[in-house]
Write a structure and sequence with these properties.
Strand content: 15-25%
Family: Belongs to the zinc-containing alcohol dehydrogenase family.
Number of domains: 2
Pfam family, one: ADH_N
Protein name: Alcohol dehydrogenase GroES domain protein
GO molecular function: metal ion binding; oxidoreductase activity
CATH superfamily of the largest domain: Medium-chain alcohol dehydrogenases, catalytic domain
Structural class: alpha/beta
Largest sheet: 7 strands, mixed
Number of strands: 17
Radius of gyration: 20 Å
Number of helices: 11
Keywords: Metal-binding, Oxidoreductase, Zinc
Length: 356
């Protein structure tokens, strides 16, 4: 079978023929229909963003595919069945430690995750991929949906994990820090699908904020930030028009802790702030304020194992819209062009997809 192989950081991916895996117990072989190309893939493959990967491998992170072959202990999955390939591979002997998981074909931090990647090495930049049985999530009654658009599940699942961690409920108000970005735009879409009354979206790019409003309407409350912090806090409060139940921080890589701190202090008493972005610095939080207002501050790495099935249900129910997406499709042979295109077109609701 053909696969796009990353042999060394800083080199283009090479299209090669590699042996087709044979699934054993607890495994399933998937024929890949569509795989997203993350906007920062170029930074990973160049080594600029230092992801620990066991090279060589076919990279990628998550896919839509159909079951090709199953191991002998499979009881439900059938050949030809449409599935989501969940990239988050959890160690079966330590599934409760998120940091000991790996993203197949993408990132493996630490000794345990690298053991997983040594075995489940190749990701979806290939015609077929071997995955753990539990990572093949059935997409029943979704065969009529374009697999290319279904690859948005990979981005949607990240903020969905944060919103589930905050126990977000219909009718609540949520701030999304980083709402105009790739994962932030997905967070806005998921929060609205979960039934929140409004999403407060702070940002400094008016055009990108306008895109959110144009896609989703008045339930999105944009806040154009300035250099005046007191004014920013006031605008956020005005946009919320009431108590803010949750702040989801899903900013990209930054050392600026100001937006995160602002978001934490904006939530109501007994509210929740969820940290799952790329802030790389310590945050100064007023101890007494947090204690006296019962503020919950929690981290969330990725999402629970049941999240993909729930998210698929939101799509089937028509609550989570895929029509907001702009997609660009590349064949596997043009993988390097796809990586460059994703880098140049990496905003919210823009998908670059490989179709092996």
């Amino acid at each position: 079978m053909k696969a796009a192989i990353l042999k060394a950081f800083g080199q283009p991916l090479l299209l090669e023929d590699i042996p087709e895996p044979v699934p054993s117990a607890g495994e399933v072989l998937i024929r890949v229909l569509a795989a997203p190309v993350g906007w920062y893939a170029q930074e990973v493959f160049s080594g600029e963003r230092p992801y620990p990967l066991v090279l060589p491998l076919a990279p990628g992170c998550g896919a839509i595919g159909v079951v090709e072959k199953t191991g002998p202990d499979t009881t439900r999955l059938q050949p030809g069945q449409l599935v989501f390939c969940d990239p988050m591979v959890r160690p079966r002997d330590d599934s409760t430690t998120p940091a000991n998981s790996m993203l197949q074909g993408w990132i493996a931090r630490g000794e345990g995750p690298q053991k997983l990647q040594t075995y489940f090495r190749n990701g979806p930049f290939a015609e077929k991929m071997l995955i753990p049985l539990e990572n093949a999530v059935p997409l029943d009654h979704m065969d009529d949906i374009d697999p290319v658009k279904l690859t948005w599940l990979v981005a949607l699942l990240v903020p969905y994990g944060g919103l589930l961690a905050a126990n977000v409920q219909p009718g609540q108000t949520v701030i999304v820090n980083g709402a105009t970005g790739y994962f932030g735009g997905a967070a806005v879409a998921v929060a609205l699908a979960m039934g929140v009354e409004r999403v407060v979206a702070p940002g400094r790019n008016k055009d990108r904020l306008d895109i959110l409003v144009n896609h989703f309407g008045e339930r999105v409350r944009p806040v154009l930030l300035s250099d005046n912090e007191a004014s920013n806090r006031q605008r956020i409060a005005q946009a919320a028009e009431g108590p803010i139940d949750c702040m989801l921080d899903i900013l990209g890589q930054t050392q600026d802790t100001g937006p995160t701190r602002r978001g934490i202090l904006a939530v109501r008493p007994n509210g929740t702030a969820v940290l799952m972005g790329g802030v790389n610095a310590d945050i100064e939080i007023p101890y007494w304020y947090v204690m006296h207002n019962n503020i919950v501050i929690r981290g969330q790495y990725m999402y629970p194992q049941h999240a993909p099935s729930l998210l698929a249900g939101l799509i089937r129910a028509g609550l989570l819209r895929l029509d907001v997406l702009s997609t660009r499709v590349f064949p596997l042979e043009e993988v390097n062009q796809a990586i460059q295109y994703a880098h140049d077109h990496g905003g919210a609701f823009q998908l670059t997809v490989l179709t092996p």
